[in-house]
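Per your request, structure below.
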């Protein structure tokens, strides 16, 4: 996990051609390919009931890995077959069990692991808007968002909630600025140091515009 997180940071910083990053990415891609082609991709669980956890032999993709790949377009082209398998995997419904991994005698929550589609409908976005925006941005950078009808519709709904000035202010129902739930969100949200008044809507408005642009939509100036 730490290696993938470090690789994600280097990829975001623009070091895609660095042989050390490419080496780490190649090893991560090999683990991912083996996982996607194995029976564990369908059934990664061991244990029963409250003791159910992800098998130690399973290597599902982490958000760190997805973010790394999102910022390595040339590398993705070199592994286009695995990227197609990854798209199919991420498009599947989430399992009903929360991702957990066994460490010694303890079961540790593993929210950084991606086991399927985390935002199959609008209520899922409302439960964690900051996390949903990170997912949509990552999928857009991967080239997956425009190909996924459900994610594209959800983005359309969020864009439609902006006012006539193009600013998102909590949606039609109105709300306070979203509070991050996932640890993966903290490097990019919030960008504003103080979320009060108009600055409370800067982050969501900017992120929606970025996702729309990354997914190939024209940028509208108002």
């Amino acid at each position: 996990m730490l290696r993938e997180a470090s690789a994600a940071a280097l990829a975001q910083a623009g070091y895609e051609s660095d042989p050390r990053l490419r080496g780490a990415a190649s090893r991560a891609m090999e683990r991912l390919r083996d996982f996607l082609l194995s029976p564990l991709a369908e059934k990664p669980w061991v244990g029963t009931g409250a003791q159910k956890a992800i098998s130690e032999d399973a290597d599902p993709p982490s958000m760190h890995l997805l973010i790394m790949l999102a910022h390595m377009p040339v590398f993705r082209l070199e592994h286009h077959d695995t990227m197609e398998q990854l798209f199919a995997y991420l498009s599947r419904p989430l399992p009903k069990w929360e991702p957990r991994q066994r460490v010694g005698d303890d079961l540790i929550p593993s929210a950084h692991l991606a086991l399927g589609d985390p935002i199959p409908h609008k209520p899922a976005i409302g439960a964690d808007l900051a996390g949903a925006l990170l997912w949509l941005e990552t999928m857009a950078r991967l080239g997956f968002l425009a190909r996924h009808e459900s994610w594209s519709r959800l983005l359309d709904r969020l864009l439609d909630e902006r006012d006539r000035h193009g600013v998102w202010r909590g949606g039609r129902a109105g709300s306070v600025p979203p509070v991050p739930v996932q640890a993966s969100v903290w490097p990019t949200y919030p960008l504003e140091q103080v979320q009060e008044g108009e600055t409370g809507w800067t982050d969501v408005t900017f992120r929606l515009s970025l996702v729309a642009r990354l997914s190939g939509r024209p940028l509208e100036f108002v």
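The longest strand covers residues 100-103.

Regards,
D.
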